[in-house]
Amino acid sequence: MRNLFFLLVFSLLIPVFGQAQNKVKLSGAAQKELKLYEDTLGVLSFLVINDSLPESRFAATRKMILTLKKALKVTNSYHYKFERLKPISIQYAPDSTFRIFTWQLFVDDNTYHYYGVIQMNSPELKMYPLVDRSAKIEDVQQSISGPDNWYGVIYYNILKLKDPAGPKYLLFGLDTYSFFKRRKVIDVLTFKDDQVVLGAPVFPKTINNDGPVNRLMLEYSAETSVKMNWDEAMGMIIYDHLIPFNGTAKSGPVNVPDGTYEGFKIELGKLVYFDKLETQILDEAPTPTPLNGKKNVIYDRSNPTGKKKTGQN
To answer: What residue spans define the domains of the chain?
Structure first.
């Protein structure tokens, strides 16, 4: 009877012990060391973004790479948030198996270099540096590569795709690309034999792609704003539908949003494409008094006559 009692108590304590082990705490010495590194990285990242001299920005970038590597070598550094490093995007996998640091270096109006590193959630440092080879990637949407041949972007979100063949991670990123054009990308990250693979044929055929493609990309005018992200309310990935526009003599033809959306739902670990999403129609404009004194209108690509309807921008 007493053995049964101890067995019951032990079984009740197992979840408590498990939770305690999952809550990794940084030692005081580690926190102090990482704070010093964070201070240095804060100054360097400011110089990378704001210094007016190209050579100074490059020098700050090189030093920042070395300093970040030293910081990440600190035991359990994964659990230090680096919350003050605003110029660096730090995105966590939904299952907290890894995080990704990315940042941008301005070279000139038409050239940007990207830097990044994937840090795994482990006490000792396990990381994968990301080497930007964007200029050498001929077919962005179909290429499959490792971290040494990365299509460089700044990541702003990570979504886990529970594929039956194994987890895949959708990485949402922004590429400033050029003076007149921007790109948004959804890359696919998988781990195979302890190696990083970028790109996988998870995106089915869409209006603009014959599909499947290994990476989804939107290229659009720098003068517009384009949405491409997971929408919690709709429970799906949504992005702007783009149409060609003449642009200017300098920019040439560009793509712009037409006010409608495409997207993907996730069903059994697969992406299912929707070519036109329902949008909320409002009787009144979302501002107290529309600037032009009229109701707002949106373009409806399902209407070939070009007739407009009242709705939300």
So the answer is: 127-278, 279-313
